[in-house]
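REVIEWER CHECKLIST
Item 1: Sequence provided? yes
Item 2: Single chain? yes
Item 3: Sequence as submitted:
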Amino acid sequence: MTETPRTIVFDVNETLSDMSPLAEAFDAEGLPALAARVWFAGILRDGFALTATNDNPGFADIARDSLERLCADTLGPGDHSAAVGNIMGALTSLSVHDDVVPGIEALSHRAELVTLSNGATSVADALFERAGIRGRFARLLSVTDAARWKPAAEAYHYAAAELGQEPRELLLVAVHPWDIHGAHRAGLRTAWINRTGTAYPGYFDAPDLEAGSLSELAGAIRVA
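Item 4: Structure as written out by the authors:
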């Protein structure tokens, strides 16, 4: 990268948190393990739909409501509060990906680090405390305090305003192509973390950088 960003803005869910244990949590409650990914994708889908109609829903509210309906549809009538509680607990007790701790350490010497999540800042805070990297982040931001969810431009502009910077001074880091696209359209620079080696969708704006891990990304960003 020819110009070092002032601030690196991280997505949290899946970008930093390893969500694979959710499959085990689903299986433990008698739900198909593969349903965990469908459930999470549905949270995003419905959150995006509500954002498109100028609502700003709570991530946890959608997660719990959709999970209650999934349990009822899959397991049948009955009290599924324990299963819902256990899975929601698993969602808020995840660990980070293996590359996150060394990557964040390296990137903290490149720029200021903050987050911008569609989830609650308390979840990010607890995730980073468990990983021992909370002190590397200057700010934890959430769309809870913005007008709309990512990938709406208002979410990224909220972050820029909170940080007192221009959008072009920020580098958004995410595993989600939709997040990369939204940030690019909002004027931010972008870095796509592609841990799985998949092809980037041609219908989204391309990232400025692509890396297989956060450590690799750190190596691609020049120190000012």
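Item 5: Key structural point noted by reviewer: The chain is about 45% helix and 15% strand.
Item 6: Recommendation: ____
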